[in-house]
Write a structure and sequence with these properties.
Layout: H1 13-29, H2 34-42, H3 47-63
Amino acid sequence: MNNDIEDSREPNPELVECAIVEVLEIAQRQGITPADFIQLLDSGIRMSDFLAALKPLAKAKDRIDCDS
């Protein structure tokens, strides 16, 4: 019997690198340094929780008109 859990593979390194770069860019746009981001991960925050927390901030920045 073939079990998908037992048949796990290593993720594609290029995809992982791309994802890390993208998340670090998102964090930096919110004023979070790479070191701060690593500290958040070390403290136990899950990646999904981090990204979910940034969504409202990104939407708010899209609505702010800095030219006025």
